[in-house]
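Researcher: Let's continue the batch. This sequence belongs to F-box domain-containing protein, and it's 511 residues. Same format as the previous ones, please.
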Amino acid sequence: MIPSHVDVKHLKALTVVLERAKKCAGQLGQRNIWYSGNPCNHPSKFLEELKVLKAHKETLLRLCKSLQKRILILQTPCNDITRQAGIKTLPSEVLSQIFIFSYVGSRDNQQAIHLSHVCRQFRSIALQTPALWTHLHNERPLPETEEFLRRSGSSPLTTTCSTGLMYWPELFAEFLANISSHSLRWSEVELRLEDARLITDNDERENGLAHYRPNLPLPNLTSIHHTYSDDFFHSQWEPWFDTPWLLPALRSYTAVNFMPKSDILSGRITRFSVSWERSYLLDDLSYINLVSFIHILDEVKTLQHLSFSFIDIPFESQHNDLPTATLPNVTTFVLMAKGGPEVEHSIDSLLSNLKLPNLENMSWSVVVTNALGHDLPSMLGWLIPSAKLRRLHLEDHSRLPHALETIIRRCTSLVDLTLCIPNADLFSKTYRNRGWGDTFARRFPLQILTLKDCDAVTRDELQYLLDTLRRGPNWDTFRRLEVNCCKRLSEDFLLAIEDRADGKLKWTTPF
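Model: Same format as before. Here are the structure tokens for F-box domain-containing protein:
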């Protein structure tokens, strides 16, 4: 606990420090600002100076506590005043854009409804912003859907068709009758097949969107989502996902717990995302056939963005003699995986048979328990074209060691590297023992290095990294070293070293 009282003697000592700072025109780099004696490099004098410096720090902490208490009292009422005054001075078109930006990623219109209930000004602007009312869902009341269609004006629409409610068949046809006349505005469609145990005996899920509207004109549809939350072996309900329409503008396809439909991928798809997550329905069933999956991928030569997500999923146990898929146009690859050794082994098999020769951006997020011990750099070696990759986001919560110097040596075109490796050191012991070596001594294009939640990284490692970067030939072109919420790197330490980074160190702490 920091006391709320400051000794007068300590206040006088701090006043002397401020006077010295004033005489030095605020140049705080001079050592004699904080210490009135003669600074000496002899270790016998260090304790005396350190005692004085810590006394000054204690005084400042007590003053800071008093300051924060007063700020806390004033902050809440001032926030209210500032928000109200600021909102009243913002033009309506600016507020409208703020609403739209905050709306990105929302899968319904609830945020727009909440905004319209804040105050009269918000309501007026929200109702005049068509882009806030573009999500239509067959499970919402029909009058609400009609109102959303009116408010959305001519904006592109996102339509969700789901079997989640007991009485969905009774409402589905009427829902489609209301929205089909607006099909020229449809931009995104999500077809969700829900749990069969919620459905009555007269299951009509084969009567999906294609059953009611087989000739729907969709010239502007750019994205389709297929989400399967049912027993995988109930394939008789696959017609729910039929898409028989001409889709000249379709560029994005997402499949969740569902083997991708090859007829959709055979078009001009440039963005493909596939996600599998074990549910309570699947238990321990092995339901993902990697052979079929790789064959489907190999047919999509127009892909530019590829995303995989595997969460606690069971694969078929045999991965021998898998085919190889080459995707020459993929520039961005995203992988998220979570599970045990079987997931790791399956990802290993998949990636070793996937060729992305022109990959430029990669995001790798892995949480693997009881790992088999694969070395990440060698796993990445199958996938990463060393002369192409420019951005790498690496998040690994397993216990596998990863060496920063290995990644930099491997990826010779890397410009932006983000590491989130809570349980790993930055450098291997071998590398540290032999000195800074040739990795940082040679030229490389890296400009931004971000360490996020790297809880095992020590002060010595960060100082070592900063020193090697400064001594190397790339410091002039290196732009930023970001350190975000690394538990062993305190605020005091980061404050102490940031001046040595020439303004290139940006940091936050977790506390």
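Researcher: Any comment?
Model: The radius of gyration is 30 Å.
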